[in-house]
Amino acid sequence: MPGTILSFLGGATAASLLFCGYLIWKPATVKIHRLTTPLQLSTEQASNGLLPVGTTLYYDTSFPEGFSRYKIYVNINRMSLELETLRDPTMIDPVDAIAFSQGALLKLLRNHPLTRKDLDTILSTDYLTKDEIKEVLSEFVASK
Predict the structure, then answer these.
(1) Distance CA 94, CA 82 (A)
(2) For a tag site, which of 99, 120, 126, 136 has the least CB within 10 Å?
(3) Is the dihedral of CA 39, 43, 48, 50 positive or negative?
């Protein structure tokens, strides 16, 4: 009888340890989003970047203020960057990614090479009205 109880307790302990190990070391689920339309990138200093179609955004967290934080991974080849230590890890300076506005699209057309496919994708979203699209294209043609 005591051997049966010890065997049961040993088996229960082993099963509990295996289950706890699984919970601790199981691979975390990663949620992603692949962009179907380009997004405008901006910081406090500038607003002239473009996040292209197909970019994978890795979900990080959502905030009560109504925005979500995503991560992207960038490969930098054969170029050493000077690294510095971030004293306060909570002081993150994120880049904002938003849908293109009329003014931002016109600025992008003037200053950056944009493929026809990218332009078609931006124009096919519901972010700009047909009148805004006509105005952007006529201003762009007039400026050339």
Answers:
(1) 19
(2) 126
(3) negative
The structural domain count of the chain equals: 1
pLDDT at res. 143: 65
Q: Is 40 exposed, middle or buried (0-12, 13-18, 19+ CB in 10 A)?
A: buried
Q: Is 64 inside any structural domain?
A: yes
Is 8 among the domain residues?
no
Q: Which long-range contacts (CB under 8 A, 24 or more apart) does 42-51 make?
A: 42/95, 42/96, 42/98, 43/93, 43/95, 43/96, 47/104, 47/107, 48/107, 48/108, 48/111, 48/112, 49/95, 50/108, 50/112, 50/114, 50/118, 51/97
